[in-house]
Amino acid sequence: MPALIPRVLLTLAACKLVAAAPSLTDILSNHANLTQLNNLLMNQSSDFLKSLQGQTDITFLAPNDHAFLGIPDTDVLAPAFQNKDYAGDITNILKYHVLPGQHPSSSLSRNGSFQFLPTLLTDGNWSDVTGGQRIGAVLQGDDPPLMVFTSGLSTRSAVTEQDVDFEGGIIQIIDNFAIPPMPFVYTVDQYNLAFEAQGMLSFLGAVYSIPPINATTASLPRYLNETRDLTLFVPSNLALEYVSGTLETLSPAALNDILSYHILGPNTGGPIYSSDFINQTQLPTLQGSNITLTFTSNSYFVNSARVIAADILIKNGVMHVLDNVLSPNHTGIRGLNATTYTQAPVLPTTFPAGQALNSSAAPYTTFVPDFYVSVSSISDVVVQTETTAGGGGGQSTAFATASSTGKHKKSAAGSLCHGAEGSGWLGANMGVAVVVTVAGGVFLL
Ligand SMILES: *[C@@H]1O[C@H](CO)[C@@H](O)[C@H](O)[C@H]1NC(C)=O
Ligand SMILES: *[C@@H]1O[C@H](CO)[C@@H](O)[C@H](O)[C@H]1NC(C)=O
Ligand SMILES: *[C@@H]1O[C@H](CO)[C@@H](O)[C@H](O)[C@H]1NC(C)=O
Ligand SMILES: *[C@@H]1O[C@H](CO)[C@@H](O)[C@H](O)[C@H]1NC(C)=O
Ligand SMILES: *[C@@H]1O[C@H](CO)[C@@H](O)[C@H](O)[C@H]1NC(C)=O
Ligand SMILES: *[C@@H]1O[C@H](CO)[C@@H](O)[C@H](O)[C@H]1NC(C)=O
Ligand SMILES: *[C@@H]1O[C@H](CO)[C@@H](O)[C@H](O)[C@H]1NC(C)=O
Ligand SMILES: *[C@@H]1O[C@H](CO)[C@@H](O)[C@H](O)[C@H]1NC(C)=O
Ligand SMILES: *[C@@H]1O[C@H](CO)[C@@H](O)[C@H](O)[C@H]1NC(C)=O
Ligand SMILES: *[C@@H]1O[C@H](CO)[C@@H](O)[C@H](O)[C@H]1NC(C)=O
Ligand SMILES: *[C@@H]1O[C@H](CO)[C@@H](O)[C@H](O)[C@H]1NC(C)=O
């Protein structure tokens, strides 16, 4: 300790006594809950760490040790870590955790509305969303409100420690990795299993049941897979089951019209997240006719179908689940009723009276493709994981390397001055006692 003091004083002199926000490495190497992230960034992903160190105005969602424990249980992350693809997949997963600009908890509204914030994930194998793949952010509850991020497959990452200042911006420490939004087919398949009441396999099967109209027109599957900034309103399995008798009498061209009336056309100015919904707006569909958004009964409706699940993020945009099938022949807002959530289907129902709806009996599911969309190496691996599903033990073993713990010391010299290059944050903290962490100890300046 006596040897350290003169060095600290020297360093402070060189800094002209300007208080410093800690560097990213200061925080990583000293935080008891960030040991795994510190290992990863110091060792395998040091290039990514360097790229962060050059940033001056970012929000970094830092997965804590609990988040690393959860990796073996995730389809998307586990293969990336098993493959040790640090330069590729893992870098892209980490980029999804970096947001341009500073997003403290105070920047989110307390009314429970989501924001969809751009991230640094722009690699074409991972994102077809203009401006960087989005992540949802919201405050939940009060006193104090919990900051929550939502990502692909409706994954929830709660912030365990909010608004940690560092020289490059703000760190939000999260208890779960965010999952980059995955392709449409894969997401529908996964979502169907996890949230059966809002299952969408029936719509997926219907899309795959229609042959391409002609050689020059992209088939719906291709459109959904390849269109950038896509917005999809997907009727639930139950919604399709309810009118299945009518749908099955339609020609392929009429069914194509119905389905493409649930898909917004290109040039809508980016995916339309729930935060972009505006009462009484019309949006153009791929089919050609408009749909109308209406806010009533505390819900958004598309024509007269209620949005029962919003903002399921996919690689190339966003999906919202509806409780009724839409038709371009019924564009009106039919029977909206402020006292009930459920509106009458616009297509004739042929469902026998008294028979209970059963999502498992929804139509078209035999057309669901038995392959997963493969747009990046990680999706290829997911296929392998799926086909060998059944034993999670192997994954845990394979992952042991990445989850081994380690304790690290940072060098005190040098890092103390980094914050002097920062701007606004320093001014705001002038005159206040500033805590600087040095080689495991704490100095009050
Ligand atoms: C990096 O790897 C080395 C060797 O495997 C290990 O001793 C160390 O704890 C790891 N973590 C850091 C932050 O250096
Ligand atoms: C919630 O607050 C945000 C930001 O103040 C605002 O844009 C949004 O319209 C509000 N939403 C509701 C439902 O009041
Ligand atoms: C560490 O992480 C755990 C699990 O996410 C959380 O419960 C705990 O509050 C965290 N501790 C600190 C000091 O942030
Ligand atoms: C293909 O179908 C589209 C949409 O119905 C139509 O506009 C186009 O003229 C058709 N092309 C050919 C070559 O038939
Ligand atoms: C809409 O109505 C027209 C005229 O009755 C009919 O030809 C067409 O098939 C209908 N389209 C759908 C999707 O029901
Ligand atoms: C569709 O909506 C746009 C506004 O988004 C409007 O200009 C257009 O007239 C609408 N088309 C029809 C047929 O109502
Ligand atoms: C939305 O528009 C409908 C139809 O004009 C209206 O009845 C309703 O009050 C509006 N909702 C809000 C929240 O303004
Ligand atoms: C709205 O729903 C309530 C409850 O189901 C029903 O009593 C009422 O008649 C409905 N009103 C309209 C206009 O459909
Ligand atoms: C729904 O259908 C599935 C498959 O046909 C059947 O196994 C299940 O018991 C049914 N559920 C209900 C609630 O009827
Ligand atoms: C989606 O597009 C990618 C890239 O073009 C292609 O590799 C993949 O096979 C397509 N998948 C489907 C289901 O069309
Ligand atoms: C996207 O994936 C393909 C196939 O795995 C690979 O060859 C290509 O380099 C990747 N592109 C980028 C930008 O990483």
TrEMBL record:
GO biological process: macroautophagy
GO cellular component: fungal-type vacuole membrane
Pfam families xrefs: Fasciclin
Gene3D superfamilies: FAS1 domain
InterPro entries according to UniProt: Adhesion/Biosynth-related, FAS1_dom_sf, FAS1_domain
SUPFAM superfamilies in the cross-refs: FAS1 domain
Signal peptide: 1-20
Top-rank taxon: Eukaryota
Record's keyword terms, sorted: Signal
Domain FAS1, chain residue ranges per copy: 21-178, 187-326
Listed name of the protein: FAS1 domain-containing protein
